[in-house]
Structures are given as C-alpha cells and as structure tokens.
Amino acid sequence: MKSLPVIRYNMRADGSSGRIRHRYEGGVFTFSIKWAGKLKFKVEFDTGHELHMDEPPHHPLSEGAGVNATRLLAASIAGCLIASLAYCLMIHRVEIEDISAEVSGTVARNEEGFLRVKEVNVTLRPRIKEKYRHKLERCIGIFEKYCTVTESVRAGIPVRVQVDPLLD
Description:
Elements: E1 8-11, E2 17-21, E3 31-35, E4 41-45, E5 50-53, H1 69-91, E6 96-109, E7 115-128, H2 133-142, H3 148-153, E8 159-163, E9 166-167
Parallel strand pairs: 7-8, 7-9
Antiparallel strand pairs: 1-2, 3-4, 4-5, 6-7
C-alpha cells in the first residue's frame, strides 16, 4: 500500500507564502464508520480526526447529532474548491486576507422516486488587495482543475462555481 506523502508549505510569520513545494502524487486512504444508534454514525479517519453523522432533524429517526451525508458531500466539494483556490493564490504569492464560501444544493427525486443530489452551487469569496487582481484572475482560470473532489463528482452532479472577489 502506497502511503500518503507529506505536503510541505513554507509560510512566513506574516502569512505570506514562501516557496511552496507540492509533491502529492495520490495514494490510498482508509477510514472506518461505526453505527452509533438509529441513523447516527461516527467516522474515524486515518488522520486521527472524527466526524459525527446523522440525518437532518426533520427526519423521524434523527437525533440531530451530526451532519448528513448530502451536506457532507457539498462541504467536501466546497472545501476542496476553497483549498485549491487558496493554494493557487499562495503559490502566486498573493496575500490572502480571507476566503469564505456559500454553498447550496438541490435534492430531488429521480425518475424511479429515489432522492438524489441534483446540483451543488458554490460561491467563493476571496478577500485580497486590488494589486493582486491579475493573479486572482489567473487562479480563477485554473484552480478548479486541481480540485480532486469537484472534478471527481462532476461527471454525475452539476457543480456550478462562482468567484466573487472582495478587493480592498
């Protein structure tokens, strides 16, 4: 089994980036999910982190004890997009003041009557200085290609991405 390599970032104390080396070539990951009663589950990742899942509170068997899989999928898409944009900006030596995202999605029944994620919409809002606008525009043109999660699910679910920069 190929282990996951370490990604090293050289960051200065002021938050600006030095030379960033990215040597991640892919690999295998594993984690476990354990039933915690009703529709609750505990995810134990190989990184040592934990996540609690449950259906939304309006579901009759839900205890509202965690995030459901649909929202987790959308969060994974948005998290990957925001990380890809931040990475692009950092390697282009852009001082990032903030990046946020708003995410929405649509769940509807398919032809057979089963619920499916029909679309995910992500609006990214990077806050940077006006002097970095040209670098931001370059990153907007390429960052989605580097988002492993988004590009992996796009074949089955439309994912619309919008970037609304907040320039100071």
